[in-house]
Amino acid sequence: MSSNKSPTDASNNNSSPAASAAIDFLTLTRSLKTTKRTGWVISGVTNPESIADHMYRMSLMAMIASFSNEALDTNRCIKLALIHDLAEAKVGDITPHCGVSEEDKYKLELGTMEQIQAMLGPLLGGDEIIELWKEYEDGSSTEAKLLKDLDKIEMILQAQEYEAEGSAERSLEQFFTSTEGKWRTEIGRAWAQEIVSRRKKNSDNDNRE
After folding, report:
1. Vertex 203, ends 147 and 162: CA angle to 5°?
2. If phi over 0 gives left and psi between -120 and 50 gives alpha, with beta otherwise, what is residue 44?
3. Dihedral (CA of 161, 166, 170, 173) sign
4. Mean pLDDT, the chain cut into blocks of 10 residues (209 residues total)
């Protein structure tokens, strides 16, 4: 007797474990697209950016910043940017205002990264991903130090843009004061100075109107 099953039916019944793990992981990361950044929500920003919005522009920052210094590994910089907030897909965007200690925050995020490592396995880069996340958290490489700066740079650039648009109900001054003087790299210092300069110029122009 001949079978009525098509090759497509057979492939559907024999789903690849790697494909299943990949789609499980990508489904988990959907929340990065839908979760709004906590700091902006608390500040009453209209239509605030998502975690993924922040990660994407930070990845662009990592790419162009690495081009300016031959000592930096561009691929590593981009990977660190894509991974640095990955744990927030499950634990959310925990800020100092959330009442969670740095130690507890790290444990929560590490737990999520270990789950992602197990989910992806070595074949899909699970081991590399958790090691890159730890490298970022520890600031243990030149690239990680740059990415620590770019995390703050993206935040104050976004704050400056929200101010210019009049999108916030409350003052965003805290985002600037919390990062002032905390730059680890020359790129961080230079980019921060440019953003602060533009912010001051916008403020001066508003005061003259």
Report:
1. 50
2. left
3. positive
4. 50 77 98 98 96 98 96 97 98 92 96 98 97 97 98 98 94 95 96 97 73
Q: Quick one: tokens of 35?
A: 């979760």
pLDDT at 11: 47
Rounded to the nearest 10 degrees, the angle between the axes of helix 74-83 and helix 142-165 is 60
- Report the alpha-carbon distance of residue 197 to residue 200 in Å, rounded: 5
| Per-residue model confidence (pLDDT) at position 49 | 98
In the block, residue with structure tokens 């020359």:
186
The tokens for 203 are 């403020």
Report the chain's C-alpha Rg in angstroms. Answer: 21
DSSP reduced 3-state for 44: coil
What's at 52, amino acid-wise?
A: A
Residue with tokens 């990264």: 113
d(Cα 53, Cα 183) in Å, to the nearest integer? 22
How far apart are alpha carbons 90 and 32 in whole angstroms? 9
**Cβ-count burial 97-110 (b if 16+ within 10 Å, e if not):** eeeeeeeebeebbb
- What does the CA dihedral 29, 30, 34, 38 come to, rounded to 10 degrees? -10
Taking each helix axis from N to C end, the angle separating 102-120 and 17-28, rounded to the nearest 10 degrees, works out to: 150
